[in-house]
Amino acid sequence: MKIAMIQNDEFDAPWKDILEAYFPEFMEFFLPVAYEGIDWERGFEFLDKELSRITRESQIGDRRMDKLVKVWRRDGVEFWVLIHIEIQGDRKPNFELGMYVYQYRAFDLYRVPVVGLAILADEEVGWRPTEFSYELWGTRQSYQFTVVKLLDYAEAELHRSSNPFAMVTLAHYYAKRTKHRVEDRYQAKWNLIRRLYRSGLDRQQIIRLFRFIDWVLHLPKEADNRLWKEIADFEERQKMAYMSSVERYSEERGVRIGEAKMLTRQLQRRFGVVPDWASEKVAKAELPSLEDWSLRIFDAQSLDDVFSDKG
Fold it and tell me: Up-side HSE of residue 96: CA atoms within 13 Å toward CB?
């Protein structure tokens, strides 16, 4: 996952993190009928191992954002339901087929009801896949699932909501709307952060939501530094200390290390053994360079092409 502005409209990682942190709120916001039917006192469980078993050898493509969650119904029946969730940022070929494959594989393996929920974060008003079906010689197969389109939410409605996923949806909305417009993105991000500070949420909730906003509304370095000065001044005036510079730069260092490891694996897969000079260059590089080199790998014919100063 790249954090550069050109790549930052792939939102899998931040959505995954915030969904796991606020799963009940996620269900309340996007699928309230299911939220009302779940016995939250019995808890819930993310079924990563089961998900891996379902997707193994299914040949339905990249499923990084899929989540399967075990929950209990509140109507007294003691069995569990799998909630299948997809966050899809752009039109995807055979999307309905992928939803259907998950449904029947999950049911075949575990014999439990499967609730399909697709969160569509694209900008195509007319793309609303809700069903996979076929019919042949008297046999008909049909699978319908729930689709939530983020662009259907009115901005004013999102501002009125206290659910954390209203803030998440606003951040995603502004990320799409301000693509390649740095100053507009800066203002949208700063407005969201100020709203976040005044939301009444506790410190940990604010930090989690801040990380989501910071990721999806990524800014170039100069604008980012200007924003952090505003945040520091704001915290000082409000006598808050939610996002300390130590925490921020510690996180940034962690991102840089992770990016370097990912780039090294990409280089090894594309070119084989990575020579010492290239490994040293990766180890010493700052985040923007790592992101740029990661993008070049797709077209580069050699290691020299990846690291060329000509770009």
Answer: 13
Q: How far apart are CA 197 and CA 213, in angstroms?
A: 13
Q: What percent of the chain has pLDDT over 90?
A: 18
Residue 89: its pLDDT value, please?
64
- β 131-136/139-144 pair status: antiparallel
Q: Rounded CA gap, 190 and 152, in Å?
A: 24
pTM metric for this prediction = 0.69
Distance in angstroms (rounded) separating the CA atoms of residues 34 and 16: 20
Q: ∠ CA 143-34-31 to the nearest 5 degrees?
A: 80
Query: Would you say 133 and 141 are in contact if contact means Cβ atoms under 8 Å apart?
Result: yes
Looking at the DSSP bridge assignments, the partners of residue 87 are: 119
Q: How much is the pLDDT for 4? A: 27
Task: Please determine, for residue 84, whether its predicted confidence score (pLDDT) is greater than 80.
Answer: no
Which of 100, 119, 152 is the last residue before a domain boundary?
152
Q: Is the dihedral of CA 157, 210, 295, 89 positive or negative?
A: negative
Mean pLDDT computed over 81-93: 72
Judgement on whether residues 35 and 145 belong to the same structural domain of the protein:
yes
Residue pair 192/230 in contact by the 8 Å Cβ criterion: no
Residue 23 clears pLDDT 80, i.e. is over it: yes
Other beta carbons within 10 angstroms of residue 152's beta carbon come to: 11
pLDDT at 111: 84
**Do residues 48 and 123 both lie within one domain?**
yes
User: Which positions ≥6 away from 52 have C-beta within 8 Å?
Assistant: none
Does the residue 259 lie in any domain?
yes
b/e code 35-62 from CB counts within 10 Å (16+ = b): bebbeeeeebeebeebbeebbeeeebee
Task: Give per-residue pLDDT as tens, 243-291.
Answer: 655 456 546 656 777 788 888 888 888 888 888 788 878 877 777 788 8
Residue 216 located in a structural domain: yes
